[in-house]
Amino acid sequence: MSSEVARYYDANTRRFLLVGAGGGTYAIHRELWAPGVSSAAEAVDQVNLLLADEIRGFAAHDTGSETEPATPLRVLDLGCGVGGTVMRLAEQLSGASVTGVTISPKQVEIAERLAARRGLQARCRFVLGDFQDADLDEDHDVAVAIEAAVHADTPERFFGAASRALRRGGILVLVDDFLTR
């Protein structure tokens, strides 16, 4: 399945960026029209801002301090696309190191170019691979996944990969759709 997903994103990423509402956010995820959001670009960025708030809250609770954590946060984006969320989190979370994993070589190429253009290449790293199998460091404080879990072979493989990438006490923040009754 992973080769099919890679081909799909290699073939369609540029189209997503051209017709999407990201407005320079370089996000490939859906919009979130929360109260106060007035444009499509803000609606796409809303998910990133909510993630940053959640991560800041986790860091404050984890360290017992409202100030910056003693060591820089390590954040992992499982299924990062062209790095829109990776870069936005690096901008929002002072000193954080943010790594994105994507199965698409074209997305890695675009993400690296965009991070360099924004001066974020020292804090943003992009890994080519299937997040289910990628050899990732095991000490990330936070893993995020936006509309990516659906690409896993099974929920067990997705959650297993996230668990392996997190340090003890780390958190997974999942943004996705779920079928309910």
Description:
The protein is α/β, with parallel strands linked by helices and 181 residues long. Helices cover 41% and strands 18% of the residues. It has a five-stranded parallel beta sheet. Helix 2 (40-63) packs across helix 3.
Structural class: alpha/beta
Radius of gyration, taken over Cα atoms and rounded to an integer in Å: 16 Å
What spatial order of strands do you see in the largest sheet?
A: 3-2-1-4-5
Distance between the termini: 28 Å
The major pleated sheet works out as:
5 strands, parallel
Number of strands: 5
Helix content: 40-55%
| Broad shape | globular
Q: Topology as H/E string? A: HHEHEHEEHE
> DSSP strand (E) fraction?
15-25%
Low-confidence stretches: none
The pLDDT mean sits at 89
Total of helices: 5
Outline of the structure:
With 181 residues, this protein is an alpha/beta fold. Helices cover 41% and strands 18% of the residues. It contains five helices and five strands.
List the topology elements.
Elements: H1 2-19, H2 40-63, E1 74-78, H3 84-92, E2 97-102, H4 105-117, E3 124-128, E4 140-146, H5 155-165, E5 166-175
Parallel strand pairs: 1-2, 1-4, 2-3, 4-5
